[in-house]
Amino acid sequence: MRLDNMLLAEGVAGPEKGGGSAAAAAAAAASGGAGSDNSVEHSDYRAKLSQIRQIYHTELEKYEQACNEFTTHVMNLLREQSRTRPISPKEIERMVGIIHRKFSSIQMQLKQSTCEAVMILRSRFLDARRKRRNFNKQATEILNEYFYSHLSNPYPSEEAKEELAKKCGITVSQVSNWFGNKRIRYKKNIGSKQTERGAMAPQNKMQFLSPQNLGGYPSPCYQSDRRIQ
DNA sequence: AGGAATGATTGTGC
DNA sequence: GCACAATCATTCCT
């Protein structure tokens, strides 16, 4: 049931209207509108998705046909056998039931593998990591300035994040990502520097308040950021 | 070409 | 829900 829902949601198992371009059209309509380059970026994705859809439907049809053929074949056999021994309608019904269950389990496997294919396709095309672009120098400068001038507590509030996002031309979640990455990498940098000097400082807490880190902006630590000279 | 840097995602814990 | 940590995938630098 879950597989059915997912395939339906992805437009793979939707109602088949003629050539099967209904799903692609629906996807285009859904992703279209404001994002002008979105549909262009996703056209390859949609093409692959409709390919999956086509394979899925032909396979499904094949299985259905095979199931029907096999059922009539078995029915014929039973009919032949009924000449030599009595066969109750119940027995025939039971036989048909078994065949249908077998074939529906095969269909289940088909659905599962189609789901997997869609998932892989999604991760290949829709994963933002694949189209990552570095922020421009100015944006990085602004973020770094905030970070190093709030080194004692580099956790911008929601409003501050919005402000930074607006200034940098990025989204709030990108700001959050940036600060998450920055905090952890900054801490790591400090940690490796301290172990280099042989000072085994406790690493279980954030070290943003340690005196050597409060050199202001730009600090010695800031200069360790090789992007900014 | 290969490693470092970097933005994004995923899993985990609180 | 957020922060952290590990990891991925891409970009940048040498």
Task: Provide an overview of this structure.
With about 230 residues, the protein is mainly alpha-helical. The chain is built from eight helices and no strands. It starts with a helix and ends in a 6-residue tail after the last helix. The C terminus is likely disordered. It binds a DNA duplex (14 and 14 nucleotides) through helix 7. It holds the Pfam family PBC. Keywords: Activator, Developmental protein, Differentiation, DNA-binding, Homeobox, Nucleus, Transcription, Transcription regulation. InterPro entries: HD, Homeobox_CS, Homeodomain-like_sf, KN_HD, PBX_PBC_dom, TALE_homeobox. Belongs to the TALE/PBX homeobox family.
Structure described in brief:
The protein has helices at 2-9, 22-31, 36-81, 89-126, 137-149, 158-168, 172-196, 220-223. It has 229 residues and is mainly α.
